Write the structure tokens for this entry.
Amino acid sequence: MLFLQLFTTFFVIGIFTFGGGYAMLSLIQTQVVVTHGWLSESTFTNIIAISQMTPGPIGVNCATYAGYEVLQHAGAGWLVSVLGSFTATFALILPSFLIVLTMVKFYEKVMGNRIFEGVMSWLRPAVVGLIGAAAVMLIVNVSWSGLCPQLSLLKENFIDWKSWVLFGCAMVASLGFKVSPIIIIVAGGVMGLLLY
């Protein structure tokens, strides 16, 4: 039953996500943390951090880790949890695969069409909003009680002053001194280990 829920949830996320992995994060968070309550906010934040550090698209990586963690929290063994990873990942990429396969056949016909171009121009601001929502979720203390009274207050994602200092140092190193992102990630991991 949990496999079917995982497949359905990530399939729907795959259908309704435009703009890539970062736009997908807020939808994944809403489903796995808020709607289903499969994972805690702090676990999901850790999944995002790991997904950003591993090669590949962040949305797919996040689905892979989330599928694994959902089964682990349900008490499954590692092999069943790996199947959970596969299920979530497959469900997430299946809609994109089918849509791209369909669009390849019809793209030349709709290219230059005013309706198609109009729809694309409306989707661009929505994508920016979804990416912004994902960033805000990771930066601030998230409270869902005002949006939906049935949901519990989520306070696990509060960032303390040390996190803001690390963030500031990473920004200065990246923008001011053009330090390689790999060095910033490694230094951030070492500093996080030392500070926490």
